[in-house]
Amino acid sequence: AYPCIYDNFYSNVSPLRCIFMCCQIQMSWTASPVIRAGAWIPSLSTHSEAQQALHLALEFLAADPSSQTVGISALLDYEGFSMSKLLSANVGLLKQCTEFVFKCLPFRVKAIHVIRQSFVYDILMSIIRHLISRKYVERIHLHGTNFEDLHKELPVDILPEEYGGRGPAIDFEAFWSLVDEQEPSFVENNGYGYLKTKKKETGFAK
Which InterPro entries does the UniProt entry name for this protein (predicted)? Predict the structure, then answer.
């Protein structure tokens, strides 16, 4: 399923490394991936390519025993997320993404903190809330530009200055260099699954 994501699972994400995704912020008690959804530029990368980058980053986090033990609290920055970007999104891929995040990864999503969102996010959320359970909807917290409210949930010592924090600047290059080191693992894991035979039967690979 979804060959647009899993075919060439690693080769298509380079244009998105400094545009879409970063998971560099971490704490001793939980990991906090930062997702700059508003920085996605559909004319440069498709929804499936953006989602592929997200999958890689989350797979990287999932391999960390501390993430598996204590879970994650994600920070989603929707600054710049426009109506044209929403119209470039694929509902089927959104459904796949929610299933992947909430059902397929070996860590608990403790909270999702949304910042700098506009009315376009409200439209997006009206779609997503039909794809996830009420339990997960209740874990989504909207902060807008009220970073003081955000600081009650995520310590200022780990947040970068642009989010009102005192932590180090977000370093996309440093994060993706760590992901690059795990490329052999991604390639190996992507070889597992079900394969279709010529008779349209299925057989388990490896």
Answer: CRAL-TRIO_dom (IPR001251), CRAL-TRIO_dom_sf (IPR036865)
What is the CATH topology of the domain spanning 3-205?
Phosphatidylinositol Transfer Protein Sec14p (3.40.525)
What pLDDT does 24 receive?
A: 45
Q: Is the pTM of this model over 0.90?
A: no
The pLDDT value given to residue 25: 47
Q: How far apart are CA 63 and CA 60, in angstroms?
A: 5
State the Cα–Cα distance between residues 23 and 125, nearest whole angstrom: 22
Measured N-to-C along each axis, helices 47-62 and 91-99 cross at an angle, to the nearest 10 degrees, of 0
DSSP string, 31-82: B--EE-GGG--TTTS-HHHHHHHHHHHHHHHHTSHHHHHH-EEEEEE-TT--
Which residue stretches of the chain are H helix?
3-6, 47-62, 65-70, 83-87, 91-99, 119-128, 134-137, 147-151, 172-181, 183-189
**Phi, psi (degrees; rounded to nearest 5) at 33:** -65, 140
